[in-house]
Specification:
By secondary structure, this protein is α/β, with parallel strands linked by helices. Among the domains are: 9-255, 3-Layer(aba) Sandwich (Rossmann fold); 339-460, Ribosomal Protein L25, Chain P (Beta Barrel). Helices cover 26% and strands 23% of the residues. Bound molecules: adenosine-5'-triphosphate and magnesium ion. Adenosine-5'-triphosphate is lined by residues 31-33, 41-42, 44-45, 65, 227-228, 257-258, 265-267.
Length: 552
Amino acid sequence: MSEEKSLNFLEEIIETDLKNGKYKQIITRFPPEPNGYLHMGHATSICLNFGLTKKYPGYTNLRFDDTNPVTEETEYVDSIKADIKWLGFEWKHELYASDYFDQLYQFAVTLIKKGLAYVDDSTSEEIATQKGTPTQAGVNSKYRDRSMEENISLFEAMRAGKYKDGEKVLRAKIDMAHTNMLMRDPIIYRIKHAHHHRTGDKWCIYPMYDFAHGQSDSIENITHSICTLEFVPHRELYDWLIEQLNIYPSHQYEFARRNMTYTVMSKRKLLQLVNEKHVSGWDDPRMPTISAMRRRGYTPESIREFCDRVGIAKRENVVDVGLLEFCVREHLNRIALRRMVVLDPVKVVLTNYNDEVEYITSEGNADDVNDSTRAIPFGKELYIEREDFMENPPKKYFRLFPGSMVRLKSAYIIQCNEVIKDAEGNIVELKCTYLPESKSGNDTSGIHVKGTLHWVSAAHAVKIEVRLYDRLFKVEDPSNEEGDFKEYINPDSLQVIPNAYAEPALKDAKFEDRYQFLRKGYFCLDKDSTTDKLIFNRTVTLKDAWAKEQKK
Ligand code: ATP
Ligand code: MG
């Protein structure tokens, strides 16, 4: 983790609250709506909420904000739990806003009894017109002065299913001239005859977000209720409801949403990408979802490190995805097993090598005890990367060309003597000789070469599929461009290499392991793999090829 950092504004507030004895412990919550998979923005909120109660005494609840029956599914609940655990956090209680429906109903009744809520028969258009504008006061609904008794019986009838969707709503009675538009008699309950993923058909009225959220916080004695900036104007209503109901005074604090370059970070937009098949699913490795990043090979450590480095802000900004990739690269460099894979092969035949097979000892990752030395078969016929050979190279080209010498990683120095081509002029084979006295670790040749190439033995190589990913969008901030964000999808974001050649050790690849394919990047096994066909995802390139490309 990074060195001593100054406190963020929430840590400052919390330290003051703890010092003053306002709280003995702090309680936070992560409140996802189960209507999609979690994305990198949620990861920020998770690291923040859970991180605070790791640092300070207290705990964090996982509360599913499932007050909208229409968009929610159990599949999402399960994925959200898996993602939080994978990120390395543990919640104290698993809770559902829907578990509070009875209590919330009672809260609504309390408001009615205090003369602070009324049933309104106006249509949604009428209610919208009544609201006025920021510069013009609203007007009272003609139903505003119903008696408490009438309101109680109408609200009970709403609950009993006597009315159709939209026929009536329950509104808080605050002030139609309030400077905060959200305080102009906001709707707190609506009728919705819909099946709920947990409560089934028990309810046909559902609380609005503003009526459920603060009350749920209060029921759980949440001390610091952290949300994103768009809820700033809601805070007044949040406080008003808690005060009128005289319940535990939770407090709301806001921070800026996390946005990242070259992607979109809204479940609604991500759902479009999935439904319209621009990607293969929520966990398509190009998606900014946590499940996609996991599948692609990102580690929880690197995502936490990223969130830590970026910190939290009070103003919206877009973070360079390059920083996330940097964190991923740093972690993988430490833990990845080193292997050799040739993505685009050209055959090398060592004319002076006998037909026997020799086993070359190769060092693994020096930082990782699990990546011990391994033996790699070496023989007369090898594959090297096509791009590591040039017939007419420019100056300072240190790889292979006619007459040049290079080292094959952990093995011998070879020299290229002849280029064999097919009828169309494509290079099909390179005839080379090797220097027997140049073996790595025991090199007495006295020859120094500048290029070292990765390679595999043709007779032993395992064919694997490799998937290379690029940015999903061509522009930094697709949501801020003209027209539909989907017009900016990068058509070349996935490149599939059906037949790459891997050293035989990769036959035993495991899902939990991370690999560095020498000179090619970091890779992991994809879930589409079968025993007959191993598929690898490129998690991230070795160097920041993208940033360099941009500077050109
Ligand atoms: P989306 O617009 O993608 O649907 P949301 O805010 O509606 O996001 P919720 O499931 O309601 O998603 O959010 C759960 C928690 O995650 C909330 O506290 C929310 O503030 C936080 N969150 C969501 N997106 C971001 C983001 N981009 N950056 C930081 N926090 C976020
Ligand atoms: Mg939402």
